[in-house]
Amino acid sequence: xxxxxxxxxxxxxxxxxxxxxxxxxxxxxxxxxxxxxxxxxxxxxxxxxxxxxxxxxxxxxxxxxxxxxxxxxxxxxxxxxxxxxxxxxxxxxxxxxxxxxxxxxxxxxxxxxxxxxxxxxxxxxxxxxxxxxxxxxxxxxxxxxxxxxxxxxxxxxxxxxxxxxxxxxxxxxxxxxxxxxxxxxxxxxxxxxxxxxxxxxxxxxxxxxxxxxxxxxxxxxxxxxxxxxxxxxxxxxxxxx
Length: 241
Hints:
By secondary structure, the protein is mostly helical.
């Protein structure tokens, strides 16, 4: 009976020692919780704020692939930062910067831009002459209709209405009112230049082999597409750049 009491006392003492030791244990510095506005890790910021629309690792999804080498070759840092920070008015692209009503600090926005730039391939378009990211002059819708017929209709069908019911037309409608209500003219221009390679859509060089789209061609077809946009687009949620 005495030995049992002694054993019990030893066990109680051991537990008390362990508890006392545990109270003095501190987690390593790198394991402490970082406040949300101090996170500067690009993979974390991109995954939580951008991947839902632009795909994991910038590979595209609902919106264009931000890691596309053509996109990163024609878009400078300011062109990437502005819509990320401020959003795009009238579209589904929200503002992420706190100064514009979002949740991210300026250093976090900078970290996203810098992280995306690491996906670029220096010299990727060397020897090419891509249309500039931003339009140099307003496009003409009537000319754009002709550009569309020559460069785009083989995939997107007559009038841009897609290939429903056709075995030879394999791409979707690009004049759908809901789609056009979600995107800006700059988004349309970027898509025409960069393409959507994840869906098999070529960049500005591949619509008609040997006849790349010119800056004027791109501006004109964007003007034609913009003219199909409903005058009062519905309010939408989400985001595309």
